[in-house]
Design a protein that fits this description.
single chain, alpha+beta, 3 domains, seven-stranded mixed β-sheet, cell membrane, MacB_PCD
């Protein structure tokens, strides 16, 4: 940049410090928000981009359709993988693995080292040998071909190897023993390097799949059943180059039909398998990603829109102030042109000033960014931190942003200023030129656009907040306050009967601080779902549907305040002997009166009677409609304790003492386990985390938009009052009141705010009405939401205008007229 351009730019900034500060703050807010959003978006789009031949990698997922219900499941029947290897051409590799929950890991002593015990270890899977052919890891010890070939083998990621065997070289860990849940004994056959890139494949321990297949888990997981599908059982394939996914999907359908049980072949197959590209796993929320965070594409697009809005508002401020400010620099331009300055030189001068101002704003934004990352900590992926800024592509993005904003903000003012005619300027006619109708209308259009964006975001914030409050306060069909639940360990690998939880149940019943107690499965609403097909014979016609199944004891309904509308409560049983169904299922079966369903039978592998009907309640968030549900009593599936604590402020103060006693009793039965519990209302609130995050985002976005818009309006008011100082003085001398002058200076701006509201009103109604359609149970778009938004915006405008207009209107006219 020419040194003279820089000196002139800095002098001009210093001369007009307030207007320059307004421009810098507005642009800095927009740039810092854009930087944070870029970090989020670039992180989400970087998942699993490092895999060789990633465009050929697919996950096989399942879609199960019923007349009343469609289920998406990221798993497949376990036998599918082995059959696909044998019967489907065009597949380079096929791998299947089974994910686990938390497991206890024990490291036996060797070479006089202490025994290591690690509780609740995560990221452990059962994998077949083809896993390491499909996904390429760097091997630090062991052989890829032989590592998982035999039962009771395990491969450790480097991070887990260092944790379990600190200070030991990878080659020396080979052959060491690792025991899982005190039952599964394995030997380390390999060490691989952790993926350093962004990935969903964060597994750290790979137990040979044949270990599962030769244990009691095979039956527990229905490993040979073509009708059993679990999202924990994941199948990935790598296609041969040139092979079309649609062809493989067709062959998967034929494969499934060949292997279905004979009794099912006469029925329409409700299950279809599809290939999901590895590139889409992070964004398709119909299918999970090993219980890890997924991105929501509409949210990402919304973030990009917010960044664009904030940047646009900052640029609009600059254009408005620069064009309004043009008349004060008219003589400078006239002299430059008289002395031989070209239009190009003048444009370069003003574009250079814009570039310097944008650069200063960018420097400020870099200091603001850590604060924004902290503010949006709950919304931003944990991997996005302040350190994320120090990457080459981020600096490249900032450079591109500086150039783009400089050009967008500076080109039009530079173009207008360079067109000024020197004769007109030096004849003192520049003011008339600068006030030409074209520029006035441009400023009005830009100012109106600012407030349309701000009004839209403010209305969106109010609507989303109202929906979240509605969801959290809605009668969900059960009690949710003062209820605590926790789970006890369950050994999936042992055939021995474990009655320790029953002993704990008796101990907890004796505690005075617990009003009600239930030993059942999960709470009424939870993230986990267990569904199965059920048939009901209504005369000669059979009805088959997918039904969610839950397990409870005799105290469960009373504890959660769930209403039994017909029939009787469940009876205690170790096995499924009866069902209590919800009203939705009763209506689906054709019973308008719930009592008519009692005594009828549902067909499973055997006939199960319906003994009761409970009132409908929400098992998921209000996004989803209430679906068919059946409760059964099965003690063998009950490993979760539900405690109802006494309500009231005085009683709530004693909750911590009661829970401390519960922990002591828990530790007396399970001394090696950690005790953790959850309040049920907190768990329900987590179901709406996405909406709460969206509310937080919109609050900040609308607040920042309002701030930038108000700053822009303040800058224009400052400039206009300065340019009309003598006019104001003359009006006061002629008897104009302060209120008249304030209204004179404010009416144009207030009319623009009102126009912006009228434009934003139908736009926001259409968008937010469409957004609410995603909720099966939703709030109304009340008129007062829009009224509050419009009134609030008008108040902000009046306060902003008053900061300057009242000062100008109350100024002594002698001071403004004495130079005449």
């Amino acid at each position: 940049m020419n040194r003279n351009y820089l000196i002139v730019a800095l002098r001009n900034f210093w001369k007009h410090k307030v207007l320059s500060l307004i421009n810098i703050v507005g642009l800095a807010i927009g740039i810092s928000a854009s930087l944070v959003i870029y970090l989020i978006v670039s992180h989400d789009f970087s998942y699993d981009k490092f895999h060789p031949d990633r465009d050929l990698l697919y996950r096989v997922v399942s879609k199960i359709e019923f007349p009343d219900l469609t289920i998406h499941n990221s798993g497949v029947p376990a036998p599918t993988a082995a059959a696909a290897r044998q019967e489907i051409p065009g597949l380079a590799t096929v791998t299947i693995f089974r994910t686990n929950g938390e497991m206890k890991v024990s490291i036996p002593a060797a070479d006089n080292q202490n025994v290591g015990v690690y509780r609740k270890e995560k990221d452990i899977i059962y994998a077949d040998p083809q896993y390491f052919e499909t996904f390429q890891y760097k091997w630090l010890a062991g052989s890829r071909a032989a590592a998982l070939a035999n039962p009771h083998s395990v491969v450790l990621a480097e991070s887990k190897a260092k944790k379990y065997f600190p200070g030991i070289k990878p080659a020396d860990i080979i052959g060491r023993q690792v025991i899982y849940d005190d039952t599964i004994k394995t030997m380390v056959n390999g060490i691989v390097e952790d993926f350093k890139e962004t990935t969903h494949f964060t597994f750290g321990e790979f137990i040979s799949l044949s270990t599962l297949e030769q244990s009691a888990l095979a039956d527990f997981y229905s490993w040979k059943d073509w009708n059993s599908i679990s999202s924990n059982t994941q199948m990935f394939v790598k296609l041969d180059p040139g092979m079309q996914p649609a062809k493989i999907e067709k062959q998967l359908a034929e494969l499934r039909n060949r292997h279905r049980e004979r009794r099912d072949k006469d029925k329409k197959d409700d299950t279809q398998h599809f290939l999901q590209s590895l590139n889409q796993i992070h964004f398709n929320t119909d299918y999970d990603t090993f219980e890890q965070r997924q991105a929501h594409l509409p949210t990402l697009y919304g973030l990009l829109a917010v960044a664009s809005f904030l940047l646009l508002l900052g640029c609009i401020n600059f254009i408005n102030l620069a064009t309004a400010h043009a008349s004060t620099r008219s003589k400078e331009i006239g002299i430059r042109k008289t002395l031989g300055g070209s239009k190009a030189n003048i444009r370069i001068q003003f574009l250079s000033e814009t570039f310097v101002l944008t650069l200063l704003a960018t420097i400020v934004s870099i200091f603001i960014t850590p604060w924004l990352l902290m503010v949006f900590g709950d919304f931003i992926p944990p991997a996005v931190t302040t350190a994320s800024v120090y990457q080459w592509h981020v600096w490249l993005f900032l450079l591109a942003l500086i150039l783009a904003v400089s050009l967008l903000s500076g080109y039009y003012p530079a173009y207008i200023l360079s067109k000024m005619q020197p004769m007109a300027v030096l004849n003192q006619r520049a003011n008339a030129h600068s006030s030409g109708s074209g520029k006035i209308w441009l400023r009005k259009i830009l100012t109106t656009s600012q407030f349309v964006i701000a009004q839209f975001l403010l209305i969106a914030t109010l609507v989303v907040s109202k929906q979240v409050r509605y969801s959290l306060s809605k009668d969900l069909g059960y009690k949710k306050d003062a209820i605590v639940y926790f789970s006890v360990p369950r050994n999936f690998y042992s055939d021995k009967k474990d009655d320790r939880r029953l002993v704990l149940q008796q101990k907890l019943k004796a505690l005075p601080g617990i009003e009600k107690l239930s030993l059942s499965a999960e709470p009424p609403a939870s993230g986990s779902t267990s569904t199965t097909t059920m048939e009901f014979a209504n005369g000669d016609k059979k009805m088959e549907t997918m039904v969610e199944v839950k397990f409870a004891d005799t105290s469960y309904f009373n504890l959660y305040g769930m209403k039994l509308v017909a029939g009787n409560n469940l009876q205690q049983s170790d096995t499924t002997k009866e069902y209590v169904i919800n009203e939705t299922y009763a209506k689906l079966l054709g019973f308008k009166n719930p009592a008519d369903a009692v005594g009828k039978f549902i067909e499973r592998d055997f006939l199960v009677p319906i003994t009761g009907v409970i009132s409908d309640f929400h098992t998921k968030s209000t996004h989803e409609a209430i679906k068919p549900l059946a409760y059964s009593s099965a003690t063998k599936r009950s490993y979760t304790f539900h405690l109802a604590l006494p309500t009231g402020t005085r009683n709530a103060a004693n909750w911590s003492n009661t829970l401390a006693k519960v922990e002591r009793e828990f530790k007396s039965i399970y001394p090696e386990e950690e005790f953790s519990y959850s309040f049920y209302d907190d768990s329900l609130a987590k179901m709406y985390k996405a909406e709460q995050d969206a509310t937080s985002l919109l609050q900040w976005a609308s607040g920042l938009c309002l701030l930038i818009s108000a700053l822009g309006m303040l800058g224009l008011v400052i400039f206009i009052t300065n340019s009309r100082t003598k006019e104001i003085g003359v009006r006061k001398v002629l008897g104009a009141s302060v209120s008249h002058i304030v209204m004179l200076l404010s009416k144009d701006f207030l009319s623009l705010v009102l126009l912006a509201f009228l434009i934003a009103l139908p736009l926001s109604w259409i968008v937010m009405n469409n957004w609410l359609q995603d909720f099966a149970y939703r709030t109304n778009l009340s008129w007062w939401l829009f009224a509050i938004s419009g009134l609030g915006m008008m108040v902000i405008a009046v306060v902003t205008l008053s900061i300057r207009t009242i000062k100008a209107a109350t100024a002594n006219p002698v001071e403004s007229l004495k130079v005449e």
